[in-house]
Each structure stands twice: as structure tokens, then as C-alpha cells.
Backbone:
């Protein structure tokens, strides 16, 4: 209850939109490739309903919030707060702006406009035409950040790119030579488990040719619950055959190749790229075509560095283990970064950096 406090209208708007962002976090990964949105319904300074986006294909935040209101008559005197513009198109569910109009909700406060071309201002226009009082742009930056994958995909026409690697305390990601065809583990078991959690959260994971050849990378979610990501690997000459774990047909797998003769089979899709041109740019284009909203580049050095040098990354997650190697394959070098958060996972340090 805010009845007896002295918050201004703007402060109240920010407070409720902040609550919408909190709610939206509950649905972030389950809703993909849809955005996760939060909605709050306020009557006389009291929250009478809340909702967030359901599992992909299910109801959006607004119908969930509306359905949670016990006394539906109060909707006619309430304000609906929502972190993203209510949709105006028929997707897997009917337009949310129609429901708001039908329920005669008189005021709607929106965090940010939807960048998706089919909506993008049309939801706002439809509600205004129906006489709803609409306010747009409250905590806009935070609302966009809460759907960073969705906004990057629609505004930049590419997935949100997360670089990830593990390095020794003296800056190497692997020894120069390995006897066995498996990864040289630098980070600890708990860090490994966290990476598998990320595999269940992001839409795709990508590795370079040498990583597949020397590690026999599987790129599945095995040490956490949830779904496998789409696997993506680079293989110019298409030399990685079905003996490799990445070709085990378990999940959708995209191979980026220069070999025009490769024909997609089973779960493996061959996508042609011109290796004389900028490869990361072409990969982004291919992943956009496959509606992939986020990708983690898991290595190795050359692959990571080529995305860095092409300025195609949004975030880097770097594990620093305690071991030293003295010589080996050097860790990639970031050209620029903005924020640095450090977390400790027992003996490992996890550095999170954004551009
Ligand atoms: N500690 C860690 O977090 C990780 C360590 N590793 C380790 O790293 C090592 C592999 O790293 P690295 O040797 O750098 O190899 P990569 O896995 O990055 O593969 C490099 C190869 O992929 C192709 N490729 C990648 N990017 C491009 C591009 N932009 N344009 C054209 N071709 C490209 C090229 O293949 P081609 O030359 O055939 O055309 C290139 O030689 C392994 O030892 C692995 O164990 C790997 C991942 C993570
Ligand atoms: N060595 C190393 C990593 N290596 C990465 O993990 C991949 C192995 O994945 P999978 O085959 O699914 O188990 C490997 O090919 C490489 O991309 N990752 C880390 O978090 N820490 C590490 O120390
Ligand atoms: Zn909707």
C-alpha cells in the first residue's frame, strides 16, 4: 500500500515497472524465443494482480496478470503496468492489446516499445484509438536490458553473443599438445556445472574446428536439468565426420562450411559460408535466419578472437583457474570492456564483462 506515502506519479510508475522487471525475470529462459515480460495491475495504489510470460507458446504477461485479479470489476478503474508494449498481432496467442481494451482498463504504463516489426508501436496506437490513456518509456533502459537477447536479435539482426572460456592463472586456455582427444580441464566441477546450466538457458553454443578435433566436444546439457542448446561448429572442408560426438544426431546441429556439396541429414544442417569474407558476420546472419536469439562462443582461441576482432560480442564470461601452464594456447584478448563483476566458485574466479 502506498496510500499514505508521498511518492510522485513518476516514482510510482518506476516502482511498479521495477516490479514488472522483477516478475519478467521468472520467465526469461522458458519464454525464448519470445521476450519475457512482467505485468502488474494497480487499483488505488494497491497491486491487485500480477503476471509474467508463460512457457513459450503459452499466455503472455498481460492475460496472466488480468486473470489473477479476483474482482474483475476493479479492472475498469485500474492501471496496468507492463515492461514491454502489449502485442497487437496474432501469434501463438491473440493480441494482448485487444484483451486490455475488452476489459476496459483505462490506463496502461509501458516500460518500452516492442522492437519486433509486427508490433513496434501498433499495440500502443490501437489502445490509444480505443481511448486508453497510455504512458510509454518508464525505466526504458532497464526494461530493454531485461530482454537483452530479444532486443539484440530484433535491433541488430543477430543473436546476443556471449564469449566464454576458461584460462589458467598465467593466461592459457590449453597446452600446445594433448595426448588424448578430450578437453584439458582448467575450471573446477562447480564451474563446469554452471556452464551446463548456461547450456540449458541459451539457444545455441558454438565451437571452432580445432576444438571439435582435439576435444571431441559434445556441447550438450549433461550436468544440469533442461534442454540442450542448438550446436554450431565451424568446419570449412567438412572433415568432421559422424565419429565425432558433435555429429551424434542428438540435437539440431549447424555446421558452417565452405563445402557446397554437403547435404543436410538428420539433425545436422550444413550452412554454406565464404571463408574469404568475414566469417563471424556470416555466422551471425545464418543464426539470425535460424531464429537463434542467443549464442555462446565456447572456443577455441582463434574462433573467440575472430568474434572479438569483428566487434561481434556482447558479454564475456571468463573462468580463471588456479593452475599454471607456463606455455600453451594463449587466452583471447578483449579489445574493450565496460563492467567487470567477479564471482568466486571455490578455487575459480568467474569474471563477467560487457562491452
Ligand atoms: N579452456 C577453454 O575454455 C577452451 C579451450 N579450448 C582449447 O583450444 C584449442 C583450440 O583452439 P584453436 O586452435 O584456437 O582453434 P579453434 O577451435 O578456434 O578452431 C580454429 C579453426 O576453426 C576455423 N575458424 C575459426 N574461426 C574462423 C574464422 N573466423 N575464419 C575462418 N576460419 C575460422 C579454422 O579452421 P581451418 O583452419 O580448418 O579453416 C581455424 O583454424 C584446443 O586445444 C581446445 O582444447 C577450446 C575451447 C575452450
Ligand atoms: N577446458 C575447459 C572448457 N572447454 C570447453 O568445453 C568443451 C567440452 O564440452 P563437452 O564436450 O560438452 O564436455 C570443450 O570442447 C571446450 O569448448 N570449458 C570450461 O568451462 N573449462 C575448461 O577448463
Ligand atoms: Zn501479448
Residues:
Amino acid at each position: 500500500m502506498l496510500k499514505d506515502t508521498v511518492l510522485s506519479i513518476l516514482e510510482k510508475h518506476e516502482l511498479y515497472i521495477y516490479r514488472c522487471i522483477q516478475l519478467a525475470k521468472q520467465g526469461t529462459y522458458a519464454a525464448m524465443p519470445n521476450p519475457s515480460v512482467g505485468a502488474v495491475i494497480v487499483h488505488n495504489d494497491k497491486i491487485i494482480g500480477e503476471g509474467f510470460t508463460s512457457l513459450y507458446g503459452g499466455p503472455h504477461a498481460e492475460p496472466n496478470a488480468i486473470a489473477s485479479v479476483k474482482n474483475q470489476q476493479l479492472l475498469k478503474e485500474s492501471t496496468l503496468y507492463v515492461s514491454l508494449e502489449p502485442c497487437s498481432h496474432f501469434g501463438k496467442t491473440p493480441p494482448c492489446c485487444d484483451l486490455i481494451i475488452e476489459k476496459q482498463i483505462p490506463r496502461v504504463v509501458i516500460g518500452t516499445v516492442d522492437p519486433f516489426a509486427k508490433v513496434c508501436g501498433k499495440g500502443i496506437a490501437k489502445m490509444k484509438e480505443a481511448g486508453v490513456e497510455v504512458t510509454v518509456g518508464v525505466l526504458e533502459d532497464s526494461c530493454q536490458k531485461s530482454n537483452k537477447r530479444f532486443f539484440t536479435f530484433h535491433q541488430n539482426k543477430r543473436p546476443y553473443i556471449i564469449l566464454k572460456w576458461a584460462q589458467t592463472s598465467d593466461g592459457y586456455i590449453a597446452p600446445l599438445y594433448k595426448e588424448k582427444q578430450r578437453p584439458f580441464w582448467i575450471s573446477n566441477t562447480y564451474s563446469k556445472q554452471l556452464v551446463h546450466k548456461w547450456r540449458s538457458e541459451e539457444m545455441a553454443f558454438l565451437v571452432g574446428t580445432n576444438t571439435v578435433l582435439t576435444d571431441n566436444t559434445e556441447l550438450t546439457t549433461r550436468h544440469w536439468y533442461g534442454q540442450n542448446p542448438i550446436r554450431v561448429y565451424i568446419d570449412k572442408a567438412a572433415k568432421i565426420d559422424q565419429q565425432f560426438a558433435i555429429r551424434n544426431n542428438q540435437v539440431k546441429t549447424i555446421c558452417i562450411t565452405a563445402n557446397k556439396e554437403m547435404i543436410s541429414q538428420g539433425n545436422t544442417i550444413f550452412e554454406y559460408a565464404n571463408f574469404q569474407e568475414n566469417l563471424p558476420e556470416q555466422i551471425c546472419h545464418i543464426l539470425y535466419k535460424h531464429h537463434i536469439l542467443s549464442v555462446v562462443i565456447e572456443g577455441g582461441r582463434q574462433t573467440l578472437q575472430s568474434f572479438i576482432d569483428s566487434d561481434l560480442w556482447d558479454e564475456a564470461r571468463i573462468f580463471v583457474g588456479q593452475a599454471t601452464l607456463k606455455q600453451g594456447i594463449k587466452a583471447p584478448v578483449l579489445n574493450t570492456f565496460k563492467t567487470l563483476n567477479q564471482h568466486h566458485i571455490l578455487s575459480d574466479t568467474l569474471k563477467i564483462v560487457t562491452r
Remarks:
- Residues 165-166, 173-174, 183-184, 186, 207-211, 214-215, 234, 236, 275, 279-280, 298-303, 306, 329 surround NDP (ligand 1) (CB under 6 Å).
- The longest helix spans residues 9-24.
- Residues 157-354 form a domain with the Dihydrofolate Reductase, subunit A fold (CATH 3.40.430.10).
